[in-house]
Every structure is written in C-alpha cells, then in structure tokens.
Amino acid sequence: KAGVTQTPRYLIKTRGQQVTLSCSPISGHRSVSWYQQTPGQGLQFLFEYFSETQRNKGNFPGRFSGRQFSNSRSEMNVSTLELGDSALYLCASSLKQGYSGNTIYFGEGSWLTVV
Amino acid sequence: ELKVEQNPLFLSMQEGKNYTIYCNYSTTSDRLYWYRQDPGKSLESLFVLLSNGAVKQEGRLMASLDTKARLSTLHITAAVHDLSATYFCAASNGAGSARQLTFGSGTQLTVLP
C-alpha cells in the first residue's frame, strides 16, 4: 500500500515568488492536512481538507492557501515567498475527517528553501 | 488555546537504561499521538491513545495517557542505539471537523553505546 506522496521533495525559490506543493494521500484516505516544520517554531498546523472543503485553518497569513481535488489529492500554495517560509512542509492523511480516532500518516515532506 | 509541553527536550542515555519522556497538555484533549522523526525524515506514527488510562506498547516503547492529569508518557525500556531519534507528542482537540494536531517541541533522544 503506497504511503503519502509529496512532490517536489526539494525546491529552492526566490523571495517574492510563489510555490505550489502537491500531496497524494493514501488510497482511500479523504482527509488531508498540511503542517509546517521549522527549527524555531516546530510543527505548526496549516489547514485540513476533507471532501474538497477546507475544514480547519491554522494561524498563518493569507499567503498560504490550499485546495483538495475530487480524488483527494491536495495542493498548497504560498505566494509572495519570504525568507521565513523556508521550512519542511508535511502533508498528513487520514481516513476520516478530523482524524476521528484514526492513525494520521505523514508524507516525506517538501523541503522549501527561500533565498 | 491548546498548548503541549514535552520534557526533556534533550535526552542522552546509555544503552540498556530506562527512561521516560513526558508530555503535558493544557486543555482537554481526547486523543494523544506519539511520533518519531529521524534526521531529514518525516514523522513515523508510533501510538495513538484514545482514552484515559490507555496504554500501548511496541517493542521497547510504551505509551500511556492520563486525561485527568493531562499527561502522556513515553517509556523507553533497555534503550538501544536504533532508538536515537526525535520523539514528538501531539494532542488533538476540537470536535468534528475542527480538529488539528498541536505538537510538542520534541525530545531529541541519543542512545550512547
């Protein structure tokens, strides 16, 4: 059974640019969440999607957005990149909305460096 | 606002010894997760604890949950080098669609020969 797949794995962007990250959840999983991991702030929740709808959003500026497609694949977009957006972006998938008692599986992450 | 505090942040221990990592959370949470992260890697799920008094064990790791004390522990028995990693606990609050994980800062464990 394939795990959570994130692409690209590594990328370097320039300040002011925008970036799109992709996440394919485990087959059959309909909930996808995104987290940002940095040495200073640790792991922080970005947003959760279920059935193509954003169900919950963390405390991040509007430059961070996402969406989910009918096949449960999700993308997140960061516009007008800042140096502080350099981080590991992790996608998590679970079977049900809101992690209803199920294990939450994380992908390998996308390493974003903003220069 | 849910806050999760782990301690210690750094733990260096000898092989064969036992130790416990503590995870305190500030408000009601009905489930607690433990994850392991190796350098440069993603999060590997270790345990999901769903109810007060829940205890789960896998190999040399055992996790427990006390919802009244808002405390979860991860106990390491007879540590081996392969257990060296960073361990995170995460609490989940909210209901229905409003859930999100709030993570602790992580405990960086080094097991020395």
Description of the molecule:
The complex is a heterodimer of chains A (115) and B (113). Chain A has strands spanning 5-7, 10-13, 19-24, 31-38, 42-50, 53-57, 64-68, 74-78, 87-94, 105-106, 110-114. In chain A, the strands form 2 sheets. In chain A, strands 2, 4, 5, 6, 9, 10 and 11 form a 7-stranded mixed β-sheet that branches. Chain A has a 4-stranded antiparallel β-sheet with strand order 1-3-8-7, with no helix packed on it. Chain A is 0% helix and 52% strand. The mean pLDDT of chain A is 92. Chain A is an all-beta fold and 115 residues long. Chain B is mainly β. Helix content of chain B is 0%, strand content 58%. Chain B has strands spanning 4-7, 10-14, 19-25, 31-37, 43-49, 55-58, 61-66, 71-76, 85-93, 100-103, 107-112. In chain B, the strands form 2 sheets. In chain B, strands 2, 4, 5, 9, 10 and 11 form a 6-stranded mixed β-sheet that branches. In chain B, strand 9 (85-93) and strand 10 (100-103) form a beta hairpin. The N and C termini of chain B lie far apart (41 Å). The model of chain B has no long low-confidence stretch (mean pLDDT 91). The chains are: A mainly beta (115), B mainly beta (113). The A-B interface holds A 33, 35, 42-45, 48, 50, 55-56, 58, 90, 92, 97-99, 101-109 and B 31, 33, 35, 41-45, 48, 50, 88, 90, 92, 94-106.
Which key terms come to mind for this protein?
heterodimer; A: 115 residues; mainly beta; four-stranded antiparallel sheet; 11 strands; B: 113 residues; six-stranded mixed sheet; globular
In short, what is this structure?
Chain A is mainly β and 115 residues long. Chain A has strands at residues 5-7, 10-13, 19-24, 31-38, 42-50, 53-57, 64-68, 74-78, 87-94, 105-106, 110-114. In chain A, 0% of the residues lie in helices and 52% in strands.
